[in-house]
Amino acid sequence: MKPSPFSRTSARLLLALSLAFAAACSDDDDGNNTPDAGTNTDAGTQTSLYAFVAQVSTDTASTSYVVLTDKLDPNTPLSLTNATEINGRALGSGIPKSGAIFVSSSAGGTVTRYNVTARNTLEKAGEVSFTGKAVTTIGEYQNQFQFVSDTKAYYFDGRNSQIIIWNPKDMTLTNSISLPDMTLSGSTTTFASNPLRVGTKVLMPLGWRAGAAVTKKAGIIVVDTANDSAVVVTDDRCGYVRDGIVGTDGKVYLATEAYGAAEKRVSGSNSSVPTPCLLKFDPATNTYDPTFFKELGTLTNGGATGSLLAGPNGTGYLRVLDETAYAVQPDTVARTLASAVAWKWWKIDPAAGTNATLVDTLPASTGSSFLYQADGRTVFSEFTNEGKTTNYRELTDLSGKLVATHQGLSFSFLQVR
User: Fold this and answer.
1) pLDDT band at 366 (very low <50, low <70, confident <90, very high)
2) Are 345 and 378 in contact, with CB atoms under 8 Å apart?
3) How many Å apart are CA 390 and CA 341, to the nearest integer?
4) What three-state secondary structure class fits 131?
5) CA triple 351-355-361, angle to 5 deg
6) 274: number of CA atoms within 13 Å, CB side?
7) pLDDT (tens digit, 9 = 90+) per residue, 235-263?
8) Could you tell me if 56 and 63 are in contact, meaning their C-beta atoms sit under 8 angstroms apart?
């Protein structure tokens, strides 16, 4: 895993990038939600720098590449040729603009810190091993790593039903929190791709599957970063509730993810498949509202609906299947349907109690989208070309314009400077 020279894209796009990411916005409304940036004396100039982690798979193995670039060209895919190569499915995480990225992989239980040099290269700066906590592989989502400050971070470990606490500055293991309620017998635990921050709390929604079948149970892990306490809170009214936003009323609204909606759509009349739903959770009391339950399809004119992604000022976006773009056949499987570039964006204010409305300026994209911050703006990812290409598109201005693209799947993006 030898760091490679910096690979540049075409110089003409520095102006395009500055225009694309000129305005400022943030998912974190509470000042307490912004972790300490840390220091990096070798960060070089103030030019923005971005890290993409691309996974390229064959029939027998996966290899990942950490690509650094200060220029994004939507017409020229980012090159993997001179990127830092990592075995397995890699994840890159960290505090934005801190000059460092923490790389983990499905090939082991170790996290490696890389600092960005003045030459825009990655320099290895330490490792921490989680193997003493029975972690042998790290490979789901970037946001299973949550950074509280430059000296404290969490790793949410579903395989061992625990949260590992570690120090990103010293690269040391600090503690762990055992959470056996994270596990359901006979089901696989999956985490939110976009967890939430409310005050001193980290909220990580949970979903469970028994094989391909959605388990009818919602869950959320609430961690208080002030004292490292954690609890799992569950609800039995629906399943795969892995997405959420903080509403205009300060309550957390949680929704079934697109995979759960796809599973319901392809199941036909199978009543055992949970109906996609919207729930309300109070982060102050760590309780679900027992009087609040909405079927997602009723909010979008009856379409297959799943995933709730954060929008501005307590609003959000539901994803709704456009069956004119992708026709569901008797043999369609849920994973293929959820990954189809056929899910439209509908804006909703769940606290207002009104139905969602179509955002017709945004193109349909894959249902399971990830949100990333770059220079104060939000971009979302989509997987195309049968999973061989990842695109990044603009969400903040509701244009969906292409920002960047690269070969392979990407579950990680970080603005490192």
Assistant:
1) very high
2) no
3) 12
4) helix
5) 105
6) 30
7) 999 999 999 999 999 999 999 999 999 99
8) yes
Model pTM greater than 0.85? yes
In angstroms, the Cα distances linking 352 to 247, 251, 315 are: 9, 12, 10
Q: CA-to-CA distance for 167 and 150, rounded, in angstroms?
A: 7
Pairing of strands 100-105, 110-116: antiparallel
Nearest C-alpha neighbor of 253 from the set 301, 297, 292:
292
Place of tokens 């709704």: 320
Distance CA 214, CA 156 (A): 21
**pLDDT, averaged across the chain:** 89
Task: Name the burial class of residue 125, with classes exposed (0-12), middle (13-18) and buried (19+) by CB atoms within 10 angstroms of its CB.
Answer: middle
Q: What is the C-alpha separation between 116 and 324, in angstroms, rounded?
A: 46
The DSSP secondary structure of 13-27, one letter per residue, reads HHHHHHHHT-S---S
185: Cβ contacts below 8 Å, ≥ 6 apart: none
Token couple for 217: 């149970």
Distance CA 117, CA 43 (A): 6
Question: How many angstroms separate the Cα of 195 from the Cα of each of 117, 245, 254, 284, 346?
Answer: 30, 9, 11, 17, 20
- 3-state DSSP: the chain helix, strand, coil percent, rounded to 5? 10, 40, 50
How far apart are the C-alpha atoms of 210 and 120, rounded to whole Å?
Answer: 44
**C-beta neighbour count of 103 within 10 angstroms:** 26
User: Please, which residues bridge with residue 392 across strands?
Assistant: 381, 404
Nearest C-alpha neighbor of 316 from the set 383, 237, 387, 369: 369
CB 305 within 8 A of CB 319: yes
What is the Cα–Cα distance from 178 to 138, expressed in whole angstroms?
18
Comparing CA positions, the residue from 215, 272, 277 lying closest to residue 243 is 277
Residue among 331, 210, 339, 184 nearest 272 (CA): 210
Using CA atoms, how far apart are residues 112 and 127, in angstroms rounded to an integer?
Answer: 4
Extract the tokens encoding 77: 């895919």
Specify the pairing of strand 402-407 against strand 389-394.
antiparallel
Residue range 315-337: average pLDDT? 97
